[in-house]
């Protein structure tokens, strides 16, 4: 693919109303829609030319690649982040227009123009030949900057940041530590599939890499395909299915070693590594790799499974999933051990697509030699925009180590009451404004209803964290099954996760990392008994510990739910249907809620009753507190 195969120019997708501006400070508390309606102001900007002017770096991730995104960093701290899929409504957005709408939104959010940007950091793309440190090709510059409406204005510099370096930066700089082993594991990026870095006050230094021919991400992807669960975008299914199987299959082509792991598919027809000179973007190699994996799994006694089987948890596919998951964990434990030994650090930071594997993260969190684990919530390729911007900001001296630890992921668009009301009227929605929206929502959940919840700034990354969520009562598995079967239209064995006020009493490691619903923890007997809807078949849950400082309205909902039911926990899954990105605008929430048949929607201060066209359901009403 040519780096200039298509134009990036495209006007941003129209929003219903104007996004409410957020704070310019990093990881600061998000404001409620009500407060934003009263004060929808842009970030303060010192006059141009002043010595104390804000330094801006715009990160772009995924040009001509999947999961396009943009992130704006001001004086070394992230102030805006958006994924292109939320605007285009194309999941894992991938086309020649790249991060056009995301970048334009980031600038609008800060109230700046392209000429105010000091440097643009572009996460390196695999289809660009002969990557350099700086982009100087005028045609490529025009394509990258065209959507920003630059005219004669140009940033001072456009810098390329390597794919794995961008991932590593996204994990290290927000971790709030001065010394860390940083590990990136994904399918492949700039010819590398796994990398070990040492993060210090001086920045990041790469210590070791594993080539694309040793990809753990591709191993997991092809195991997902062979199990009949879909392509790489469905790898999370394999992780969930693993809980139902036994790791009894001998996958002897991959094994951990003293300094990492080794993968050898030559017995299954794949040419030796030295023969792969065409590069990892070559489709011939990729097809040969898929064929070799199919033969390897089949020779191990697992014929390729039928797709989308609701009884997959009772089939050989579950044993394949368990075996692949177990082997991935063993290999990563070895990589982590090597990283800690070579760096001498006790803090561990993770990013890359494999970093979204909650089960593995839970095991790594309990590694004896590690006292701190930070996993970037936008661990996939969308997070490269954040990492590229932070890496360049650090080089410029705008970001110091250690900086503040990332406390939340709410850096996306928000909508004030005017924008919400406009969307409600345009949709002809039935809505009210209850005096206490959190208490009203809690009462609906306690009655067994499944609701949509749209509040504040959108989350970064694939996990819904209480800004764009579908919520239900976790005290019963019936609602979990209804969400999987009737709303999400997916396999019944898929796990759902809890948001909670305090992990104490619910997990055996309440002090472990739980900000981003990305680390699996062992459930306590109390959790298994009282909130079975969010405890997986392996006895784990992946909690989100809600901090009232960053999510005041969501915390109020949990307190109100505790008053209703005695349990300050809610079942939380992403607000989207099959094949859809998570909703962004109020209009998205209304349309998706009607398609999915949700019982009610809470958007800002407004309660929306079920649209007449939405299907109705028999409600399960668990007992109220004290009954």
From TrEMBL:
InterPro entries: ATPase_NBD, Carbam_trans_C, Carbam_trans_C_sf, Carbtransf_dom, NodU/CmcH_Carbamoyltrnsfr. It comes from the Bacteria. Belongs to the NodU/CmcH family. Residues 442-609 form the Carbamoyltransferase C-terminal domain. GO terms for molecular function: catalytic activity. Residues 14-44 are annotated as: Disordered. This is Carbamoyltransferase. It comes from Nocardia cyriacigeorgica. Residues 58-122, 158-390 form the Carbamoyltransferase domain. It holds the Pfam family Carbam_trans_N. Residues 29-38 have a biased composition (Polar residues).
């Amino acid at each position: 693919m040519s780096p200039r195969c298509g134009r990036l120019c495209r006007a941003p997708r129209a929003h219903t109303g104007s996004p409410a501006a957020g704070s310019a400070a990093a990881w600061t508390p998000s404001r409620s829609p009500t407060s934003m309606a009263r004060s929808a102001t842009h970030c303060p900007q010192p006059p141009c030319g002043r010595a104390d002017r804000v330094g801006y770096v715009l990160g772009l991730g995924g040009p001509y690649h999947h999961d396009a995104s943009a992130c704006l960093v001001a004086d070394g701290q992230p102030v805006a982040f958006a994924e292109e899929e939320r605007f285009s409504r194309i999941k894992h957005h991938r086309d020649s227009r790249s991060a056009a709408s995301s970048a334009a939104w980031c600038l609008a959010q800060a109230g700046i123009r392209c000429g105010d940007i000091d440097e643009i950091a572009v996460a390196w793309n695999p289809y660009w030949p002969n990557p350099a440190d700086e982009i100087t090709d005028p045609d490529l510059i025009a394509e990258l900057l065209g959507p920003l409406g630059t005219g004669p204005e140009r940033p001072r510099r456009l810098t390329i940041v390597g794919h794995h370096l961008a991932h590593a930066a996204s994990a290290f700089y927000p971790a709030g530590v001065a010394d860390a082993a940083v590990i990136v594991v994904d399918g492949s990026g700039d010819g590398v599939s796994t990398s070990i870095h040492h993060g210090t006050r001086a920045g990041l230094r790469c210590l070791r890499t594993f080539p694309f021919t040793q990809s753990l991400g591709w191993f997991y992807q092809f195991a997902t395909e062979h199990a009949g669960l879909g392509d790489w975008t469905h790898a999370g299914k394999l992780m969930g299915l693993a809980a139902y199987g036994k790791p009894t299959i001998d996958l002897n082509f991959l094994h951990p070693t003293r300094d990492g792991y080794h993968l050898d598919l030559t017995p299954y027809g794949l040419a030796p590594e030295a023969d792969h000179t065409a590069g990892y973007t070559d489709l011939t190699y990729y097809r040969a790799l898929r064929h070799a994996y199919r033969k390897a799994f089949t020779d191990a006694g697992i014929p390729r499974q039928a797709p989308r089987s609701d009884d997959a948890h009772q089939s050989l596919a579950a044993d394949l999933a368990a075996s692949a998951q177990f082997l991935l964990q063993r290999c990563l434990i070895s990589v982590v051990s090597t990283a800690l030994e070579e760096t001498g650090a006790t803090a561990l930071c993770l990013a890359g697509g494999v970093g979204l594997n909650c089960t593995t993260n839970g095991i790594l969190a309990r590694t004896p030699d590690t006292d701190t684990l930070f996993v970037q919530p936008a661990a996939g390729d969308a997070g490269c925009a954040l990492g590229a911007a932070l890496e360049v900001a650090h080089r410029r001296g705008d970001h110091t180590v250690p900086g503040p630890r990332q406390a939340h992921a709410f850096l996306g668009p928000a909508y004030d009451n005017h924008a919400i009301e406009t969307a409600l009227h345009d949709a002809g929605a039935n809505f009210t404004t209850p005096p206490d929206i959190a208490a009203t929502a809690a009462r609906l959940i306690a009655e067994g209803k499944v609701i949509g919840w749209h509040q504040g700034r959108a989350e970064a990354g694939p996990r819904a964290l209480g800004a764009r969520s579908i919520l239900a009562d976790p005290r019963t598995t019936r609602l979990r099954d209804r969400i999987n079967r009737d709303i999400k239209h997916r396999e019944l064995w898929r796990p759902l996760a809890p948001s909670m006020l305090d992990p104490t009493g619910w997990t055996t490691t309440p002090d472990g990392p739980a900000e981003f619903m990305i680390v699996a923890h062992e459930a306590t007997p109390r959790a298994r008994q009282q909130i079975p809807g969010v405890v997986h078949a392996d006895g784990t849950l992946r909690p989100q510990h809600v901090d009232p400082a960053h999510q005041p309205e969501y915390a109020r909902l949990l307190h109100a739910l505790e008053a209703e039911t005695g349990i300050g926990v809610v079942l939380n899954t992403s607000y989207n249907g099959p094949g859809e990105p998570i909703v962004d605008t109020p209009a998205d929430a209304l349309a998706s809620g009607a398609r999915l048949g949700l019982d009610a929607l809470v958007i800002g201060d407004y309660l929306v009753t079920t649209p007449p066209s939405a299907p109705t359901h028999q409600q399960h009403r668990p007992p109220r507190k004290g009954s």
